[in-house]
Design a protein that fits this description.
- The protein has 48 residues and is of the alpha+beta class.
- It has one domain (2-41).
- The chain has 2 helices and 3 strands, in the order αββαβ.
Length: 48
C-alpha cells in the first residue's frame, strides 16, 4: 500500500526523480496563498 502510494507521486524527468503532490482544492480554499502542487527533486536517478 505505501509503496503504491509513493510510486504514484514519483515522476522521472530526464535522469532525476521528483516527488509531486497536488494539494486538494478544499485545503487551498482555506489558505489561497498555498501553491496548487508541491514538487521536490529527490536528486537521484534510482528509485530504490
Amino acid at each position: 500500500m505505501v509503496q503504491t502510494l509513493v510510486q504514484s507521486h514519483l515522476i522521472l524527468r530526464g535522469d532525476t526523480y521528483y516527488f509531486r503532490y497536488v494539494l486538494p482544492a478544499h485545503i487551498r480554499s482555506l489558505c489561497p496563498s498555498l501553491p496548487a502542487e508541491i514538487k521536490r527533486s529527490l536528486r537521484t536517478g534510482s528509485i530504490l
